[in-house]
Design goal:
Number of domains of chain B: 1
Shape of chain A: globular
Largest sheet of chain A: none
Helix content of chain B: 25-40%
Strand content of chain B: 15-25%
Number of strands of chain A: 0
Number of helices of chain B: 5
Structural class of chain A: mainly alpha
Oligomer: heterodimer
Largest interface: A-B, 30 and 18 residues
Shape of chain B: globular
Structural class of chain B: alpha+beta
CATH topology of chain B: CBS-domain
Radius of gyration of chain A: 22 Å
CATH class of chain B: Alpha Beta
CATH superfamily of chain B: CBS-domain
Strand content of chain A: under 5%
Order of helices and strands of chain B: HEEHHEHEEH
Number of strands of chain B: 5
Distance between the termini of chain B: 20 Å
Strand order of the largest sheet of chain B: 3-4-5
Number of helices of chain A: 21
Distance between the termini of chain A: 37 Å
Helix content of chain A: over 70%
Amino acid sequence: MTALPAILSTIIFFGSLALIFSEKINRSIVAIAGSVLMIGVGTLFNFYSEEAAIEAIDFNTLGLLMGMMILVAMLEPTGFFEYLAVLAARASEGKPIRLFFLLGSITTVLSMFLDNVTTVVLIAPVTILISEILGVSALPYLVTEALLSNTGGVATLVGDPPNVLIGSAAGLSFNDFLIYSLPIVLVSWAGALFLLKYLFKKELSKRPRRSKAVMKLNPAETLNHPETARKILIVLGGAILFFFVHHLLHIEPSLVALSAAAIALMWVQPDIHEVLNKVEWSVLLFFGSLFVMVGGLEHSGVLEMIVRLFDNATGISPVLFGVLVIWIVAALSAVVDNVPITIALIPVIKGLGETGMDIGPLWWALAFGAGFGGSGTIIGSSANIIVATLSEKTRTPITSALWVKRGLPVMLVTCTIASILFAIFYRWL
Amino acid sequence: MNITTCMKRHVVSITPDTMIHEAADIFVKKHIGLLPVVDKDDKPIGVIGMRDLLNLELPDFVNFVVDVDFVHDFGAVEDTRPPARTLNKKVKSLIRPIITVEEDAGLLRAYALMLQQNLHDILVVSKDGKLIGIASRVDVGVAILSSWTKVE
């Protein structure tokens, strides 16, 4: 093999990444153009083909994401998310610390099963509402919601796109995540929660001016379509039950998610255009295009070279190597999108496995790094960006400086806890 | 018939240097919803609506939560008023661009403009651009309907 294919595919891939991270052109547009270029150049120089590109696409990931997106798109207009937030507000009786724990926990649990962005997009407006009628600042709650949804999402197979990618590539089941990831995430999450409570202690100790106002919020009135909400929640609950046993039934999680979406669509029969409009096709295309580009890198031999590079460096102990993976991936995820990082690193880790390394624990290291790293900066995760953008339209916007003071410590603490637990439980991972 | 037959000729107006609390005072005393802003030659340069002032204290969540019906008590935001710092600002930053009609404009044209631009009131200017009157939707509508009342 000559070096030319490797050079060309590297230029296309990293050129596309640079363009994506410069944010000058929409990331999906860049990815589509890059993947087409990869196939074109690959065909011309005989290292890639259309067939190989289609094989490179992980349809299991795309199916799982699409299924969950359809379910969420149907659940969103029912007002269920607002309902939960209002219940939390009433249960808090207007006490800031209690509200902080309740809203944080609800966001975490939702983001363990649903997309973080959707969770935050729907919880944040009600959070602003609750804070305003109480007469307290919304900032601690908003920042905490984004950070805890980043953290909580790492716990399950369906909680975060990197997990979906890792689970699919490594053949990890929903239960594998519950057994290996959830306990470590829970401890890290608790660390993040109490750290945030400490960092926001000044804001949270302020007494609300009108704590009784939240008791007059009527949760029932937030549910626009209670019957639809009930149906979708039943289907979603069923899907989660099937996630627990999907590996025993030898079916992929994507089939579970798509079946749930199909059943919900049949049962509710919503306006299909409205539902499909809410599905984030640009995200799915972005993922698909990245798979095609990384496939090109793989076929041109670049990933093999990287694997050899890492292989030489693994004179260090496997535990230390895993911890390094957590921190390097976290540092990268804090400044750039964690999806391309994950998609690019998956074949590298697989390659390391082929050289005889025990890569089982590395998958978890990758998941922790990609998930927890996103908390570090205001642009580190989509949830952070959503919350920040929303707050820009209020009288008290969240600044990048504030994020560094609150988010970075959370990233450092969660990564540290994860690293320690990773090292302790390495043998079992 | 043109717009001058139905417009109000005594227009209360302010200048860009008017303070927000002074503008509020005029809205209260005159019981009106719109104030034209004129330059020193009496030429209109914009308008300030009552809602532009009220929006200053509208809670942020109203922009995010589509239906606020379930919020039965606005709590802390219900009894806030802008700080002195805001009230002592000039109205300049709140001025909205205007749509005017000249004094020879027909009633239906004026009504159509108001409908399309979602205006409750329209300013009437003279040939040399000076503010000479203001007409509400009701003023214009009533003037148009007045020819419908007698069936021959």
